Structure formats: C-alpha cells, structure tokens
Amino acid sequence: MLERLGKGISKPDIGILALRVFVLGSLFLKHGTPKLFHFQQELMWENIGYPSVFHLGSVGTLLFATLADGICSMLVVLGLATRWAALFTFCSLAIGWGMVHGFAFTGTEGRIAETISLYMVGCAAIFLLGPGRYSFDAMIKASAEKKRAVGGRPTQAQA
C-alpha cells in the first residue's frame, strides 16, 4: 500500500510516527489531559492526595508529572524536542512506577505495571530512534541545513 503513495515515503519513519502518535498520544489523552485540565481534582488522587516524591510535595510532584504526561508527551507526538521530551517522560514514568507503585508487577499495584512498562518502552524506543522524518524536529533540521547550504557559514570577518 505504501508503495503506491510514492517513493518518498519511508516505512521506518512511518513506523516511528505511528509509535509517537499512538503510544505517547494515548499517554497524553489518558494521563496528561486530566492533569492539565483537572489539576485540583488530581491533587486529591484516590481520595488520599497526590503522592510526594523526592520531598517535592504533592503540588511539585504533580507539576513534574503534568510536565511529563501533559506537555512532553504532546511534544513527542508533534516531533518537537522529541528526544529530550521522551527522556523526560521516561524518567517521570520510572520514578512514578518505582516510588509510588514500588515496581510492582503483581497484585493490586501490578495492574498498573503493564501500562507503565509499555509507555516506558515506547519512550525508550523514541529516544533511541529519534523523531523520524515526519516531525517538526526534522523540518527544523532541514530548514537549518538549507540555510547553511544557501548562505554558507559566515566568516569571522563577516560576523
């Protein structure tokens, strides 16, 4: 099917795009939007209050998680600052899984582990693979290379 779309289509880059959109898009929709749009309700997480990690307090920890789940996940979906956003999200997920859920894979806490580990694998893959051709990062890089090729680098006399 992709062959009919044209020779300029890169199958690996389509795969990276799909990974970015579906994995981090679902993270944004399921976990990011409640944190962004219902911050006060999220502070009363499961009627016990949002956990405090690394002595940041509930608000600081929730802000950290909101940055990862709400903002960085959308940056990854867009392909903007992709590797840094994926790394930040990975770290946030690892901290949440370890500090809040105790790296549980069984029992009542274990039901969360499968989802967290899948999100973490997606973030790690995106961090290692990069944003792919179909991203804002690639557009910015191509634009910078085009400017360099057309204008050349300024010499010290010109600068």
Short account of what is shown:
The protein has helices at 2-5, 11-37, 39-43, 57-78, 82-100, 107-129, 136-151.
Describe this structure in words.
The termini are far apart. This protein has one domain (10-147). α2 packs across α6 (107-129), α4 (57-78) runs antiparallel to α5 (82-100) and α5 packs antiparallel against α6. It is 73% helix and 0% strand. The protein has seven helices and no strands. The model has no long low-confidence stretch (mean pLDDT 87). With 159 residues, the chain is an all-alpha fold.
Characteristic terms for this protein:
159 residues; mainly alpha; 73% helix
Topology:
Blueprint (H helix, E strand, L loop, with lengths): L1 H4 L5 H27 L1 H5 L13 H22 L3 H19 L6 H23 L6 H16 L8
Total number of domains: 1
Distance between the termini: 50 Å
Q: Radius of gyration, Cα only, in angstroms?
A: 19 Å
Give the helix tally.
7
Helix content: over 70%
**Which of globular, elongated, flat, extended, rod-shaped describes the shape?**
elongated
Low-confidence stretches: none
Q: Please describe the biggest sheet, giving its number of strands, its sense, and whether it closes into a barrel.
A: none
Total strand segments: 0
Query: What portion of the residues fall into strands of 2 or more residues?
Result: under 5%
User: What would the average pLDDT be, to the nearest integer?
Assistant: 87
Order of helices and strands: HHHHHHH
Name the quaternary structure.
single chain
SSE class: mainly alpha
